[in-house]
Each structure stands twice: as C-alpha cells, then as structure tokens.
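step=encode ok
step=design start
structure_in=
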C-alpha cells in the first residue's frame, strides 16, 4: 500500500453502471477536483466502475495502491445493486454493523416528511466496522469515512444535492486537518486563436519546464489554451507567481491571445461590440445558424447582435441578401465572391455596423476536387471594407461547422480592433 506523506494524492471513483453506459455525465469528477484544488489538495486519478461488487472491490484495490485518499460517490442507496460499502468492507476485510445513530437519522428523515421508513432503508444504516458515518441532511444515504492501510476512504452518495454539502462539511475539513495548511491553487487560462498548439508549444519550452508556476497547453476546437497554475500560502501570493509568466507569454503571442479565464470567442465579440456601441448581423450557409446560436448564448447579446439569416438555398442568398445571380452562376455558392456579398448584404439588410458571411462544404459529402470538403469562405464587413478568408478545415461535419464559426469570430475581432 502507499506510504503516507504530507502530500494529498486523491483518487475519485464514481460507482454506477449508468455512468459507464453514458446515460448520465460524471459531473462529480469535475466538481470534487475543483473543490479540493481550492484547498491545495490534489486529485491524481479519476475512475468509474459499474454496479458489480467484485469490480468495485478491484477498483478500491487499485486505488489503494497508488493514492492515499479515495473518494467514492454513488452506490449507497437501499436497493440490491447499491454495493459500494459492501465492496469496501470486503476489500478491507471488515464487517458491516448497524449504526443506531445513523438509523435514527434516517428514521427522522422520513418522519419529517410524515412517511414511515421502508424496511429496505435499514440497509443504509449499515456501516463498516471501525469507520465513522457522515450525516446526510438532504437524503437517506449516510456517508462513511474510514482510515485503513494508509488510505483515507470516503463514501458519499451520488445525488449532487446530497454529495456536495457533505464533501464541503465532512471531507475537506478532515483532509485539510490531516494534510496541513490550505495552500491556495490559482489558475489563469489564456485563450489563443489563429495559431496552432504545436507552434505555441515550441516557443514556450522554457516556461513549461517550471514547477511553480506550471504552464500547460490544451487543444480546443479551432483554438487553443494555455493554463498557468501556481500554488502558494495565499491566493494573492499565487497570483503574483503567475503575473510575470503571463506577461512573458503575452509579449510572445499578443496578436493571437483573444481572452482569458472564462472568455470565449463569442463572448469577447459581444463584449467588444457592446463596449463600442456597435452592432452585428450574420449570414450563414454551411453553419446553418450555429454562429447566431453561439452569439445569442451570451447574456446581453441583444445589445449588439441584431439578427441573422440562414441562407442555405441560392434563392435565399439572392432574395434576402442581394447576392448577385451572376456571382452564384459564375463563382458558385461556395466562393470568395459569394461570401463577400453575403456579409455585405446582411449588414445592409439588417442595418448593422458589421456583417459576417459564411459559406462552405461541411461534408461528409458534396466535395469535389476543385472544392473539397472542409473548404469554407468567411467574410467580415463594415462600412469601410470587406475581408474574405479561405479556410481548408478538417474534421467531422460538426467540427467543420464549429471551427468555421470560431474563425468568423476571430476574423471579426481583428476587423473591429483595426477600425476602432
């Protein structure tokens, strides 16, 4: 088993066949990791296992070999397939014993709702011998804590409204007490567009080799991110460690950095337009309204986004956007000229300061040698000029559509900034 040290090496284990079948999302992993990180407690592994006692036992055995904290969620209900504590008891070679205190708590839970307690709920009051039960004020499944074999085991119920307060009230305080002061972990995310992950990574080798702060690149759909993370005794001290590294990254890549932390390309576009009191209209063909959806997902977008036209058919491009019939006949719907006239036409038709036009071939079919799948033209226009960009994108239909929208936002931001 693992040797105890001053460092928390936590592992999260989600129990439930429904997670493995993809019927529910394992949101617990993200939430618990974030909560522990706030206190300088680190998660090293995430795992999931179905409702099978032997497999859960094996999952606990694996976790205990490499982690000194194991937090399991789910499998504490009253039914026969709720097997988490049974599996942990079997792994630890301990008995399950009735906790009269836990049973009284469950009985009281039903009494407050003026309902008798079903007999099968007695199962939830069984606790692993030598462990401690953790009260659950929002449900009938008490949690459990036991220290054995150099490992702190915590069992928590699956429903988020039950698990989350128990994590904050009973798990984190114990871990902070055991592993010492609450060192603060702070992260700063920088968002890039117009440059690839490998290009950035090649230029930050000197920064990614550090231990505190650390710098790590992440690939996104049509963009990339750099995360700078530091730990210190206070949040302010951690931020001071981040500041010089962030300043250096900005000095190297300023033209490609569009935002930080929770920013997104659509949110920055809307924010920039609102700040300047200007408006936007979009005309979409291959993206089918996706850009409009991304923009209107942003709170306050109505102050800057006036509307959009999904111009899939050529007749719509002509009648609503004013795309010239000769342009469509000679250059085709997927062309630089058509994208240009779409951006200018929607700006004019909807009375906006800026217009965006997107036309392309999202696939998987419809491509030719001259115009292959992934060919997209993005145009951005204001009352001074129109810029058109030819993109050759890769990926699935969904990826090509999303990347087209992000490129449209990125190119629009450049036009907005150039014409401030």
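sequence_out=
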């Amino acid at each position: 088993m693992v040797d105890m040290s001053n460092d928390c090496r936590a592992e999260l284990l989600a129990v439930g066949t429904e997670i493995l079948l993809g019927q529910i999302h394992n949101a617990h992993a993200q939430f618990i990791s974030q909560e522990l990180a706030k206190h300088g407690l680190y998660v090293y592994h995430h795992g999931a296992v179905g409702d099978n006692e032997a497999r859960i036992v094996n999952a606990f055995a694996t976790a205990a070999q490499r982690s000194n904290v194991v937090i399991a969620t789910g499998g504490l209900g009253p039914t026969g397939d709720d097997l988490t504590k049974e599996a942990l008891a079997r792994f630890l070679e301990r008995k399950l014993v009735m906790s009269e205190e836990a049973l009284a708590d469950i009985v009281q839970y039903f009494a407050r709702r003026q309902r008798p307690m079903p007999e099968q709920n007695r199962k939830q009051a069984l606790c692993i011998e030598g462990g401690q039960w953790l009260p659950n004020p929002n449900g009938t499944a008490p949690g459990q804590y036991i220290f054995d074999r150099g490992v702190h085991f915590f069992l928590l119920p699956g429903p988020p409204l039950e698990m989350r307060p128990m994590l904050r009230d009973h798990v984190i305080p114990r871990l902070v007490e055991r592993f010492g002061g609450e060192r603060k972990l702070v992260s700063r995310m920088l968002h890039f567009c117009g440059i690839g992950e490998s290009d950035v990574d090649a230029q930050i080798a000197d920064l990614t080799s550090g231990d505190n702060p650390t710098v790590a690149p992440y690939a996104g759909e049509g963009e990339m991110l750099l995360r700078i993370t530091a730990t210190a005794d206070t949040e302010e001290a951690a931020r001071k460690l981040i500041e010089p590294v962030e300043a250096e990254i900005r000095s190297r890549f300023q033209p490609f950095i569009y935002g930080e932390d929770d920013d997104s390309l659509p949110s920055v576009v809307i924010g920039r337009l609102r700040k300047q009191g200007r408006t936007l209209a979009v005309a979409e063909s291959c993206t089918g309204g996706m850009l409009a959806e991304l923009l209107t997902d942003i709170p306050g977008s109505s102050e800057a986004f006036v509307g959009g036209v999904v111009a899939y058919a050529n007749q719509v491009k002509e009648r609503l956007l004013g795309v010239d019939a000769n342009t469509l006949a000679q250059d085709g719907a997927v062309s630089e000229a058509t994208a240009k006239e779409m951006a200018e036409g929607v700006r004019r038709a909807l009375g906006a300061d800026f217009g965006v036009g997107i036309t392309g071939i999202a696939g998987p079919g419809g491509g030719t040698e001259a115009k292959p799948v992934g060919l997209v033209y993005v145009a951005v226009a204001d009352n001074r000029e129109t810029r058109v960009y030819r993109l050759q994108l890769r990926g699935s239909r969904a990826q090509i559509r999303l990347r087209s929208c992000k490129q449209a936002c990125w190119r629009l931001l450049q036009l907005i900034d150039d014409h401030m």
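step=design ok
step=annotate ok -> The two ends are 62 Å apart (CA to CA).
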